Amino acid sequence: MDEAKEVGRSIKRSFSMKLIFVAFMLLFSGEAAFAYEQPKYEIVKIYKGFELRRYAPYIVAETVVSGKFDDAGNKAFRILFKYISGDNLKKTEIPMTAPVNQSPAIESAEKIEMTAPVEQTPDGENSDSYVFSFIMPSKYTLDTLPIPADPRIKLRQVKSRLLAARTYSGTWSEKRYRENETALLEAVKAAGFTAVGEPIFARYNSPFSLWFLRKNEVLLEVEEERDIQQ
Q1: Which distant-in-sequence residues (6+ apart) come within 8 Å of 166 by Cβ?
Q2: What are the helix and strand counts (H, E) for the chain?
Q3: Which stretch of DSSP H or E encloses residue 69?
Q4: Kind and range of the H or E run holding 94
């Protein structure tokens, strides 16, 4: 009898731990992702199949990786996450004193806050490569951002632009992405816009998030060649 009670208590503890784990994942893989800073934009107009947005300029830290669509993201994420975690060099200003002595600049690491989304775009020069970008917090400029210690990472200013955005949930699989990419391209064409460059795959959640809670988007820059206010 005592053994049966102990088995029962063990099952209850196991069930309770599973409930706690699920609650934890629901808390930190869904809504928590939207607490990250995101690029500023205004909604210009909503069309059938997409939302037209005008984005303010922002800075990205980006790297190019080779591999299959479904696998390249893991490699790129590790490279870029190391940069924002402190794998960088930031010059520290030294206040002027007297007498004047010549000494080397002091360098230190700096952690950078995580933002959303993580962007993935085909590399125009190589068909089997992708450009992955972490958007930098708006408090930084190109002059104040830490220098990446990894030469594979480049910092770049992205200009203000007009983007068509299609939002969807679910996995990060290439099949799921291609379905929404095709739908966006067709909707943009039907609305009379001309696409500029390659579509962007935007991921708003961490790799550890539950797939059904993920927010994903396909973004596409378009030309301002028509009266979008009509």
Answers
A1: 49, 50, 51, 180, 183, 184, 187, 217, 218
A2: 3, 12
A3: helix 69-84
A4: none
| 209/24 Cα distance (integer angstroms) | 11
- Residue showing tokens 């067709």: 186
Q: What are phi and psi of 148, to 5 degrees?
A: -60, 135
Tokens 């009509």 label which residue?
230
Tell me how far apart the alpha carbons of residues 184 and 169 are, in angstroms, rounded to a whole number: 15
Query: How far is CA 67 from its chain centroid?
Result: 19
pLDDT digits (tens, 9 = 90+) for 112-171: 999 999 999 999 877 789 999 999 999 999 999 999 999 999 999 999 999 999 999 999
**C-alpha to C-alpha distances, 7 to 1, 11, 12, 13, nearest whole angstrom:** 10, 6, 9, 10
187-227 tens-digit pLDDT: 999 999 999 999 999 999 987 888 888 999 999 999 986 65
Residue closest to 128 by CA, chosen among 200, 175, 68: 68
Phi and psi of 176, rounded to 5°? -65, -40
Tell me the two tokens of residue 127.
């068909």
